[in-house]
Amino acid sequence: MAITIALFLISLLTLSPLSSSLSLNYYQKTCPDAEIIIAGTVKNAAGKEKTVPAALLRMHFHDCFIRGCDGSVLLNSKGDNKAEKDAPPNGSLHAFYVIDDAKKALEQHCPGVVSCADILALAARDAVVLVGGPTWEVPKGRKDGRTSKASETAQLPTPSFNLSQLRQSFSQRGLSMDDLVALLGGHTLGFSHCSSFENRLRNFNSTHDIDPSMHPFFAASLRSMCPVKGRPKNAGAPMDPSSTTFDNTYYKLILQGKGLFSSDQALLANPKTKGLVTKFASSHEAFVDAFAKSIIKMSSITGGQEVRKDCRVVN
Ligand SMILES: *[C@@H]1O[C@H](CO)[C@@H](O)[C@H](O)[C@H]1NC(C)=O
Ligand SMILES: *[C@@H]1O[C@H](CO)[C@@H](O)[C@H](O)[C@H]1NC(C)=O
Ligand SMILES: *[C@@H]1O[C@H](CO)[C@@H](O)[C@H](O)[C@H]1NC(C)=O
Protein backbone atom coordinates (compact mmCIF):
# COMPACT_ATOMS: atom_id res chain seq x y z
CA MET A 1 0.00 0.00 0.00
CA ALA A 2 2.78 2.39 0.98
CA ILE A 3 4.53 1.60 -2.27
CA THR A 4 1.38 2.22 -4.30
CA ILE A 5 0.90 5.60 -2.65
CA ALA A 6 4.55 6.54 -3.14
CA LEU A 7 4.41 5.62 -6.83
CA PHE A 8 1.18 7.52 -7.23
CA LEU A 9 2.70 10.63 -5.65
CA ILE A 10 5.77 10.39 -7.86
CA SER A 11 3.63 10.12 -10.95
CA LEU A 12 1.62 13.13 -9.83
CA LEU A 13 4.76 15.14 -9.19
CA THR A 14 6.35 14.29 -12.50
CA LEU A 15 3.26 14.38 -14.67
CA SER A 16 0.92 16.85 -13.03
CA PRO A 17 -0.70 19.25 -15.48
CA LEU A 18 -0.46 21.87 -12.72
CA SER A 19 3.33 21.89 -12.95
CA SER A 20 3.28 22.86 -16.60
CA SER A 21 3.93 26.36 -17.79
CA LEU A 22 2.05 26.22 -21.05
CA SER A 23 0.40 29.29 -22.52
CA LEU A 24 -1.91 30.16 -25.36
CA ASN A 25 0.33 32.88 -26.80
CA TYR A 26 3.62 31.00 -26.41
CA TYR A 27 4.72 31.50 -30.05
CA GLN A 28 3.12 34.93 -30.54
CA LYS A 29 6.50 36.67 -30.86
CA THR A 30 8.80 33.82 -31.90
CA CYS A 31 6.65 32.08 -34.53
CA PRO A 32 3.29 33.78 -35.02
CA ASP A 33 2.36 31.68 -38.07
CA ALA A 34 3.07 28.33 -36.39
CA GLU A 35 -0.58 27.32 -36.03
CA ILE A 36 -1.47 28.33 -39.59
CA ILE A 37 1.46 26.34 -40.98
CA ILE A 38 0.56 23.22 -39.01
CA ALA A 39 -3.15 23.44 -39.86
CA GLY A 40 -2.30 23.76 -43.56
CA THR A 41 -0.06 20.71 -43.45
CA VAL A 42 -2.69 18.60 -41.67
CA LYS A 43 -5.44 19.69 -44.06
CA ASN A 44 -3.32 18.88 -47.06
CA ALA A 45 -2.43 15.40 -45.77
CA ALA A 46 -6.01 14.61 -44.67
CA GLY A 47 -7.23 15.59 -48.13
CA LYS A 48 -5.01 12.91 -49.65
CA GLU A 49 -5.40 10.16 -47.05
CA LYS A 50 -8.64 9.88 -45.08
CA THR A 51 -7.08 7.93 -42.18
CA VAL A 52 -4.76 10.83 -41.27
CA PRO A 53 -7.06 12.53 -38.70
CA ALA A 54 -7.64 9.34 -36.70
CA ALA A 55 -3.91 8.58 -36.83
CA LEU A 56 -2.90 12.01 -35.52
CA LEU A 57 -5.39 11.92 -32.65
CA ARG A 58 -4.24 8.45 -31.61
CA MET A 59 -0.58 9.45 -31.91
CA HIS A 60 -1.17 12.36 -29.53
CA PHE A 61 -2.83 10.05 -26.96
CA HIS A 62 0.04 7.60 -27.14
CA ASP A 63 2.52 10.43 -26.77
CA CYS A 64 0.85 11.92 -23.69
CA PHE A 65 0.33 8.58 -21.94
CA ILE A 66 4.04 7.72 -22.02
CA ARG A 67 6.39 10.25 -20.33
CA GLY A 68 3.88 13.06 -20.85
CA CYS A 69 3.31 14.88 -24.14
CA ASP A 70 6.98 15.13 -25.07
CA GLY A 71 7.10 13.77 -28.62
CA SER A 72 8.61 10.48 -27.39
CA VAL A 73 6.28 8.61 -29.75
CA LEU A 74 7.92 10.40 -32.71
CA LEU A 75 11.50 9.27 -32.05
CA ASN A 76 13.05 6.55 -34.18
CA SER A 77 14.81 3.51 -32.78
CA LYS A 78 18.56 4.04 -32.63
CA GLY A 79 21.36 1.53 -32.14
CA ASP A 80 20.08 -1.09 -29.76
CA ASN A 81 17.39 1.19 -28.29
CA LYS A 82 13.98 0.19 -29.62
CA ALA A 83 11.66 3.21 -29.59
CA GLU A 84 7.95 3.38 -28.66
CA LYS A 85 6.90 3.46 -32.30
CA ASP A 86 8.54 0.09 -32.89
CA ALA A 87 6.90 -1.69 -29.98
CA PRO A 88 4.92 -4.72 -31.17
CA PRO A 89 1.39 -3.20 -30.92
CA ASN A 90 2.34 -0.40 -33.31
CA GLY A 91 -0.01 -1.23 -36.17
CA SER A 92 -2.27 1.65 -35.13
CA LEU A 93 0.44 4.28 -35.46
CA HIS A 94 1.08 5.87 -38.82
CA ALA A 95 1.14 9.25 -40.59
CA PHE A 96 4.37 10.32 -38.87
CA TYR A 97 5.20 12.04 -42.16
CA VAL A 98 2.57 14.71 -41.42
CA ILE A 99 4.51 15.83 -38.33
CA ASP A 100 7.75 15.72 -40.34
CA ASP A 101 6.22 17.89 -43.07
CA ALA A 102 4.97 20.46 -40.56
CA LYS A 103 8.34 20.50 -38.78
CA LYS A 104 10.18 21.02 -42.04
CA ALA A 105 8.00 24.01 -42.93
CA LEU A 106 8.38 25.46 -39.43
CA GLU A 107 12.17 25.06 -39.45
CA GLN A 108 12.29 27.17 -42.59
CA HIS A 109 10.05 29.79 -41.05
CA CYS A 110 11.33 30.01 -37.47
CA PRO A 111 14.18 27.53 -36.91
CA GLY A 112 14.59 25.78 -33.57
CA VAL A 113 11.47 27.31 -32.01
CA VAL A 114 8.43 25.04 -32.22
CA SER A 115 8.66 21.72 -30.36
CA CYS A 116 7.57 18.47 -31.96
CA ALA A 117 5.31 17.80 -28.96
CA ASP A 118 3.49 21.09 -29.64
CA ILE A 119 3.22 20.27 -33.35
CA LEU A 120 1.55 16.97 -32.46
CA ALA A 121 -0.84 18.58 -29.93
CA LEU A 122 -1.88 21.17 -32.52
CA ALA A 123 -2.12 18.62 -35.33
CA ALA A 124 -4.42 16.44 -33.21
CA ARG A 125 -6.71 19.43 -32.63
CA ASP A 126 -6.67 20.34 -36.34
CA ALA A 127 -7.44 16.71 -37.21
CA VAL A 128 -10.51 16.65 -34.96
CA VAL A 129 -11.78 19.92 -36.46
CA LEU A 130 -11.35 18.59 -40.01
CA VAL A 131 -13.64 15.62 -39.35
CA GLY A 132 -16.43 17.65 -37.79
CA GLY A 133 -15.35 17.71 -34.14
CA PRO A 134 -15.01 20.63 -31.74
CA THR A 135 -12.19 23.12 -31.76
CA TRP A 136 -10.26 24.35 -28.75
CA GLU A 137 -7.32 26.64 -27.99
CA VAL A 138 -4.18 24.56 -27.45
CA PRO A 139 -1.86 25.78 -24.68
CA LYS A 140 1.71 25.61 -26.04
CA GLY A 141 5.29 25.51 -24.81
CA ARG A 142 5.84 21.76 -24.43
CA LYS A 143 9.41 20.57 -24.68
CA ASP A 144 10.56 17.44 -26.49
CA GLY A 145 11.96 14.51 -24.53
CA ARG A 146 15.18 12.66 -25.20
CA THR A 147 14.01 9.14 -24.38
CA SER A 148 11.70 6.69 -26.11
CA LYS A 149 11.53 3.07 -25.03
CA ALA A 150 9.42 0.36 -26.66
CA SER A 151 9.05 -1.40 -23.30
CA GLU A 152 7.19 1.60 -21.84
CA THR A 153 4.28 1.13 -24.25
CA ALA A 154 3.21 -1.58 -21.77
CA GLN A 155 1.88 1.37 -19.70
CA LEU A 156 -0.75 2.19 -22.36
CA PRO A 157 -4.33 1.15 -21.61
CA THR A 158 -5.25 -1.89 -23.71
CA PRO A 159 -8.50 -2.80 -25.50
CA SER A 160 -9.12 -5.59 -22.98
CA PHE A 161 -8.95 -3.34 -19.90
CA ASN A 162 -11.86 -3.42 -17.47
CA LEU A 163 -13.16 -0.25 -15.84
CA SER A 164 -10.95 -0.41 -12.75
CA GLN A 165 -7.85 -0.83 -14.91
CA LEU A 166 -8.93 2.10 -17.10
CA ARG A 167 -9.58 4.28 -14.09
CA GLN A 168 -6.20 3.47 -12.62
CA SER A 169 -4.40 4.18 -15.88
CA PHE A 170 -6.10 7.55 -16.25
CA SER A 171 -5.81 8.58 -12.59
CA GLN A 172 -2.06 7.89 -12.66
CA ARG A 173 -1.96 10.69 -15.23
CA GLY A 174 -4.13 13.06 -13.22
CA LEU A 175 -7.21 12.31 -15.33
CA SER A 176 -10.62 11.78 -13.75
CA MET A 177 -13.50 9.43 -14.53
CA ASP A 178 -15.16 12.25 -16.48
CA ASP A 179 -11.98 12.66 -18.54
CA LEU A 180 -11.87 8.92 -19.11
CA VAL A 181 -15.40 8.71 -20.53
CA ALA A 182 -14.96 11.84 -22.68
CA LEU A 183 -11.54 10.90 -24.04
CA LEU A 184 -12.54 7.35 -24.98
CA GLY A 185 -14.95 9.14 -27.34
CA GLY A 186 -11.88 9.49 -29.57
CA HIS A 187 -12.82 5.95 -30.59
CA THR A 188 -15.41 7.58 -32.83
CA LEU A 189 -12.53 7.69 -35.33
CA GLY A 190 -10.37 4.99 -36.81
CA PHE A 191 -10.06 1.31 -37.51
CA SER A 192 -9.04 -1.67 -35.41
CA HIS A 193 -7.41 -4.93 -36.36
CA CYS A 194 -9.16 -8.15 -35.26
CA SER A 195 -6.52 -8.89 -32.64
CA SER A 196 -7.82 -6.04 -30.43
CA PHE A 197 -11.33 -7.51 -29.98
CA GLU A 198 -10.99 -11.12 -31.04
CA ASN A 199 -10.97 -12.43 -27.46
CA ARG A 200 -14.64 -11.40 -27.25
CA LEU A 201 -15.71 -13.38 -30.33
CA ARG A 202 -14.60 -16.95 -29.63
CA ASN A 203 -13.75 -18.97 -26.48
CA PHE A 204 -14.51 -15.90 -24.38
CA ASN A 205 -14.53 -17.95 -21.17
CA SER A 206 -15.51 -21.42 -20.03
CA THR A 207 -19.23 -20.61 -19.94
CA HIS A 208 -19.60 -18.21 -22.87
CA ASP A 209 -18.21 -18.57 -26.38
CA ILE A 210 -19.06 -14.91 -27.12
CA ASP A 211 -18.79 -12.04 -24.65
CA PRO A 212 -22.38 -11.81 -23.36
CA SER A 213 -22.15 -8.01 -23.12
CA MET A 214 -21.93 -7.94 -26.92
CA HIS A 215 -25.04 -7.67 -29.10
CA PRO A 216 -25.38 -11.09 -30.86
CA PHE A 217 -25.82 -9.67 -34.38
CA PHE A 218 -22.83 -7.39 -33.86
CA ALA A 219 -20.72 -10.32 -32.66
CA ALA A 220 -21.80 -12.39 -35.70
CA SER A 221 -20.82 -9.65 -38.11
CA LEU A 222 -17.42 -9.21 -36.44
CA ARG A 223 -16.85 -12.97 -36.59
CA SER A 224 -17.40 -12.90 -40.33
CA MET A 225 -15.01 -9.95 -40.68
CA CYS A 226 -12.38 -11.83 -38.66
CA PRO A 227 -12.59 -15.44 -39.91
CA VAL A 228 -10.29 -17.98 -38.28
CA LYS A 229 -9.28 -19.38 -41.68
CA GLY A 230 -8.34 -17.38 -44.73
CA ARG A 231 -8.27 -14.07 -42.89
CA PRO A 232 -7.18 -11.13 -45.04
CA LYS A 233 -3.90 -9.58 -43.88
CA ASN A 234 -5.40 -6.33 -42.56
CA ALA A 235 -8.75 -7.70 -41.40
CA GLY A 236 -10.57 -5.66 -38.80
CA ALA A 237 -13.45 -3.30 -38.22
CA PRO A 238 -14.07 0.45 -38.14
CA MET A 239 -14.24 1.78 -34.58
CA ASP A 240 -17.76 2.95 -35.40
CA PRO A 241 -19.69 2.95 -38.70
CA SER A 242 -19.10 6.69 -39.09
CA SER A 243 -15.40 6.25 -38.36
CA THR A 244 -14.25 9.26 -40.39
CA THR A 245 -16.66 11.64 -38.63
CA PHE A 246 -16.17 12.97 -35.13
CA ASP A 247 -19.61 12.37 -33.63
CA ASN A 248 -21.29 10.80 -30.58
CA THR A 249 -22.23 7.54 -32.34
CA TYR A 250 -19.63 5.77 -30.21
CA TYR A 251 -21.74 6.28 -27.07
CA LYS A 252 -25.00 5.29 -28.78
CA LEU A 253 -23.39 2.04 -29.87
CA ILE A 254 -22.14 1.21 -26.38
CA LEU A 255 -25.71 1.51 -25.09
CA GLN A 256 -26.73 -1.03 -27.77
CA GLY A 257 -23.99 -3.53 -26.82
CA LYS A 258 -22.02 -2.59 -29.93
CA GLY A 259 -18.85 -1.21 -28.38
CA LEU A 260 -15.92 -2.76 -30.23
CA PHE A 261 -13.45 -3.23 -27.37
CA SER A 262 -14.01 -4.70 -23.92
CA SER A 263 -12.71 -1.37 -22.65
CA ASP A 264 -15.47 0.49 -24.53
CA GLN A 265 -18.26 -1.74 -23.27
CA ALA A 266 -16.74 -1.54 -19.77
CA LEU A 267 -17.98 2.04 -19.46
CA LEU A 268 -21.40 0.62 -18.56
CA ALA A 269 -19.96 -1.23 -15.54
CA ASN A 270 -20.42 1.66 -13.12
CA PRO A 271 -23.42 3.97 -12.60
CA LYS A 272 -21.35 7.14 -12.94
CA THR A 273 -19.59 6.18 -16.18
CA LYS A 274 -22.83 4.69 -17.51
CA GLY A 275 -24.57 7.99 -16.73
CA LEU A 276 -21.96 9.88 -18.74
CA VAL A 277 -22.26 7.47 -21.67
CA THR A 278 -26.02 8.03 -21.64
CA LYS A 279 -25.56 11.80 -21.48
CA PHE A 280 -23.06 11.88 -24.35
CA ALA A 281 -25.21 9.49 -26.43
CA SER A 282 -28.14 11.88 -26.16
CA SER A 283 -26.19 15.13 -26.58
CA HIS A 284 -23.51 15.72 -29.19
CA GLU A 285 -22.98 19.13 -27.58
CA ALA A 286 -22.34 17.70 -24.12
CA PHE A 287 -19.86 15.22 -25.62
CA VAL A 288 -17.81 17.68 -27.65
CA ASP A 289 -17.67 20.20 -24.78
CA ALA A 290 -16.43 17.51 -22.40
CA PHE A 291 -13.98 16.14 -24.97
CA ALA A 292 -12.39 19.54 -25.57
CA LYS A 293 -12.03 20.17 -21.85
CA SER A 294 -10.49 16.77 -21.17
CA ILE A 295 -8.10 16.75 -24.10
CA ILE A 296 -6.67 20.11 -22.99
CA LYS A 297 -6.06 18.52 -19.59
CA MET A 298 -4.44 15.43 -21.10
CA SER A 299 -2.31 17.40 -23.50
CA SER A 300 -1.00 19.57 -20.66
CA ILE A 301 0.91 16.65 -19.14
CA THR A 302 4.42 17.76 -19.98
CA GLY A 303 7.76 16.00 -19.71
CA GLY A 304 10.43 17.11 -22.21
CA GLN A 305 13.62 19.18 -22.13
CA GLU A 306 14.48 20.49 -25.59
CA VAL A 307 13.13 21.64 -28.95
CA ARG A 308 14.17 19.01 -31.45
CA LYS A 309 15.39 20.06 -34.88
CA ASP A 310 14.19 16.78 -36.38
CA CYS A 311 11.18 15.12 -34.73
CA ARG A 312 12.65 11.64 -35.29
CA VAL A 313 15.98 12.20 -33.50
CA VAL A 314 17.15 13.95 -30.33
CA ASN A 315 19.38 17.02 -30.78
C1 LIG B 1 6.42 -1.72 -36.04
O1 LIG B 1 7.58 -2.28 -35.44
C2 LIG B 1 8.36 -3.07 -36.32
C3 LIG B 1 9.53 -3.61 -35.51
O2 LIG B 1 9.12 -4.14 -34.29
C4 LIG B 1 8.86 -2.21 -37.48
O3 LIG B 1 9.58 -3.01 -38.38
C5 LIG B 1 7.66 -1.59 -38.19
O4 LIG B 1 8.12 -0.68 -39.16
C6 LIG B 1 6.81 -0.82 -37.19
N1 LIG B 1 5.60 -0.33 -37.86
C7 LIG B 1 5.26 0.95 -37.82
C8 LIG B 1 3.98 1.28 -38.51
O5 LIG B 1 5.91 1.81 -37.25
C1 LIG C 1 -10.16 -5.98 -13.62
O1 LIG C 1 -9.04 -6.69 -14.09
C2 LIG C 1 -8.05 -6.92 -13.10
C3 LIG C 1 -6.84 -7.54 -13.79
O2 LIG C 1 -7.20 -8.62 -14.59
C4 LIG C 1 -8.65 -7.80 -12.00
O3 LIG C 1 -7.68 -8.04 -11.00
C5 LIG C 1 -9.86 -7.11 -11.41
O4 LIG C 1 -10.49 -7.97 -10.48
C6 LIG C 1 -10.85 -6.74 -12.50
N1 LIG C 1 -11.89 -5.91 -11.91
C7 LIG C 1 -13.17 -6.12 -12.11
C8 LIG C 1 -14.10 -5.17 -11.44
O5 LIG C 1 -13.57 -7.02 -12.84
C1 LIG D 1 -17.88 -15.52 -18.27
O1 LIG D 1 -18.16 -14.13 -18.46
C2 LIG D 1 -19.45 -13.73 -18.02
C3 LIG D 1 -19.64 -12.28 -18.39
O2 LIG D 1 -18.56 -11.49 -18.01
C4 LIG D 1 -19.58 -13.96 -16.54
O3 LIG D 1 -20.88 -13.60 -16.09
C5 LIG D 1 -19.31 -15.43 -16.23
O4 LIG D 1 -19.32 -15.60 -14.83
C6 LIG D 1 -17.97 -15.84 -16.78
N1 LIG D 1 -17.75 -17.25 -16.56
C7 LIG D 1 -16.66 -17.71 -15.94
C8 LIG D 1 -16.58 -19.20 -15.76
O5 LIG D 1 -15.75 -16.99 -15.54
Automatic annotation (TrEMBL):
Residues in the active site? H62 (proton acceptor)
The residues the entry assigns to the signal sequence are 1-21
Keyword Secreted in annotation: yes
Main subcellular location of this protein, as a coarse class: secreted
The EC code for this enzyme is: 1.11.1.7
Sites where the protein binds Ca(2+) 2: T188, D240, D247
Keywords (A to Z) from UniProt: Calcium, Disulfide bond, Glycoprotein, Heme, Hydrogen peroxide, Iron, Metal-binding, Oxidoreductase, Peroxidase, Secreted, Signal
Which Pfam family name is an example for this entry?
A: peroxidase
User: What InterPro entries is this protein classified in?
Assistant: Haem_peroxidase (IPR002016), Haem_peroxidase_sf (IPR010255), Peroxidase_pln (IPR000823), Peroxidases_heam-ligand_BS (IPR019793), Secretory_peroxidase (IPR033905)
Query: Per its Swiss-Prot or TrEMBL entry, what cofactor is needed?
Result: heme b; Ca(2+)
Q: Which residue positions hold the site described Transition state stabilizer?
A: R58
Q: Which GO terms describe its cellular component?
A: extracellular region
Reactions that this protein is recorded to catalyse: 2 a phenolic donor + H2O2 = 2 a phenolic radical donor + 2 H2O
Q: Name one GO molecular function term.
A: metal ion binding
Sequence positions that bind heme b = H187
Keyword Amino-acid biosynthesis among record annotations: no
**Top-level EC class:** oxidoreductase
Per the UniProt entry, the disulfide pairs are C31-C110, C64-C69, C116-C311, C194-C226
- What biological process terms from GO does the record include? hydrogen peroxide catabolic process; response to oxidative stress
Annotated Ca(2+) 1 binding sites: D63, G68, D70, S72, E84
Protein name (database record) = Peroxidase
Origin species: Punica granatum
Provide the taxonomic classification: Eukaryota, Viridiplantae, Streptophyta, Embryophyta, Tracheophyta
